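Hello, quick one for you while I still have it in my head. Could you read through the record and tell me how the tokens relate to the sequence? No rush at all, and the record is pasted right below.
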Amino acid sequence: MLKLFGAVLIVLAGTLAGFQRARQYADRPQHIRGLIAALQRLETEIMYGFTPLPEAMRRIGLQSREPLKWFFVKTAEEMSPPHDRSAQDAFQRVMEAHWKTTAMKGTEKEILRQLSCTLGTSDRTNQSTHIALALQQLKQEETMAREDQGKYEKMSKSLGLLLGALIVILIF
């Protein structure tokens, strides 16, 4: 009876691991879409609202969903007193501390890092150009993430279950 209980737990753990991995494939396109929408709002705030960058980040954070909400709010806090960090430093600190809470990968992180180098250091039109470039790159990443989701989401679920069953077979 104890062996059966252990076997069920192993299969359950493998299945849950597979479902967790599948959820990451499903969440990545959603997080990228959220980031695209946030950057579009940032461009609007910069170009038409003449909003200071920390305030624009705070507003965008409050309008966004988790985990991007937290990302933009923390970036705004890093750029505001008493820290008064540059956009590049604020983005870097927040990305290092909280990037793992998103389903996004290193390519999206690199796009944001490159964008942060120009935010707050150039005129509005130059910032708008860089945001548009980042948006284009993120749209390409979203397309690739959707393709990955189609390929690997269902497979991850099945593989988790099968891996759990394989472990049970090997142990018993």
